[in-house]
Amino acid sequence: MSKLTDAQRTQIFWAATVIAVAVSLLQGAITTLVEICETEGLWTIRFSLGRREHLWWSAIAIALVASFGCMVLSFLAGNNNDSLGIILLASASSLAVFRYAWPAWRNRHYCSNRWAAWTGPSRTGIDTTLVPLIKGNDPWPILSKEVPVMKQHPVDIRLPIFRSNLIADDPTDILKARKRLMDTVTGQSEQQPDQKSETPLVPDDTTGLYAPIHSNKSASLLWGTHIGFSPRVSRGILAVPQRLLRSSPLTSSGHDGQPVCLAHGILGRNKGLEPYSFILGLNPGKFEEKCVQWPRPSKVLRTYYREEMNAAYGGLGSVFVDAATELALLLADSSHSLIEDWLSLRMEHQDHALNNQLARLGASDEELKVLYRLSYAAMLVSLSAHRKGREWRPEMKLFRAYWKIYKGEEMPAWMGEAVIVERIGKEESGAGDTDLDALIEAVLYKIDSPRSV
């Protein structure tokens, strides 16, 4: 070290100083950006940054350690005036590593799943006057190109770094703008749909609409990257407390809030038109025993999670609160990789392709509505029995069990179709030693008087 010249010692000192200053500026810029996103509701940007949080904090920590190393080298080479700088950099390096980088690495899988839970496909209600606009093969690219540029909600704003061909606007905004444009061109409102028409429209998988589709009734749309839309955080996030949106969230009782945040993201996207009508008669004890997540250690948090869900969804009824609570508990007991696989297969949603297929096979509006009302029960059974690669929600098995128990009628004719028999076989396959029938029985326990459909 003593062989270093004064010029070399000076260069090392300034290299350490420049690195420390640059890192401070970068850290300040990132922290400010995060605070702006959280304050102004730019949640798509915030959660996108969160997926890379562990990388930027690691880069900052490495740079600080490098600066600290240069400062130590300069001190050993004879710059005795650097002792204070060494102490400061040692403190900053330790803080960056143990306070930020390490926790960020531990949370990286959660932040990835948080992005998936909040930005996956969304189910949105479409007004009666807008339903006729959704027609043709793959209509959304055409509809989005024929409307003027719209002001985005803060939640929808994305970082304009990479150009994408995916549609950035909300589908309801597109339809409303399209309707206004058509009204302006024609000089009058579009002809209103015939209120006496009761003939359902033939569903098309590419439109994203769930059956039944009537020209004189509202419809339910499943939209996302699968039909050309850019992922963005659900606007339902506006109702979620900020303490649950941090990288290390907490419930109001001080417990780990990660599963609750993930559950809010899922429930903000998959409700459908009548969430107050869901069918679920849960037997928690039996359900817990038959889950792949058994022995379900997080079941002791049921009371605390229920308080959170009741505060958020109490207006939708006790059945919805029960489903939300059980979903959060299941997520708490599931591995990050299992949650990632489950979300990537869109298992949180009612099977859109199956819904359209049943409509083409002749399923009545009543039968399709029963399938919708059972969708949350199917979601819980799906997660509780999920294994990597399992691609089928047990919707038909659940429908068959419910119909036998509570309808007491002959099965619909389309249940005997070869494709439906094959579907039920697929739902049963891959279950391994999981008792799928017992899980279904546990979610249909004590449904005293199901609502009329």
What does this structure look like?
The chain is an all-alpha fold and 453 residues long. The protein has 3 domains: 101 residues; 113 residues, no CATH class; 208 residues, no CATH class. It is 53% helix and 2% strand. The chain contains 18 helices and 2 strands. A two-stranded antiparallel sheet has the order 1-2. Helix 1 runs antiparallel to helix 3. The C terminus is likely disordered.
Number of strands: 2
Query: Which segments are poorly predicted (pLDDT under 50) over 5 or more consecutive residues?
Result: 449-453
Kindly state the percentage of residues in helix: 40-55%
Which term fits the overall shape?
globular
The assigned structural class equals: mainly alpha
Q: Helix and strand string, N-terminal first?
A: HHHHHEHHEHHHHHHHHHHH
Biggest sheet overview: 2 strands, antiparallel
Please tell me how large the radius of gyration is.
27 Å
Q: Approximately what portion of the residues adopt beta-strand conformation?
A: under 5%
CA(first)-CA(last) distance: 85 Å
Q: Main sheet: which strands, in order across?
A: 1-2
> On the 0-100 scale, what is the average pLDDT?
87
Please tell me the total number of domains. 3
> How many helices in DSSP terms?
18
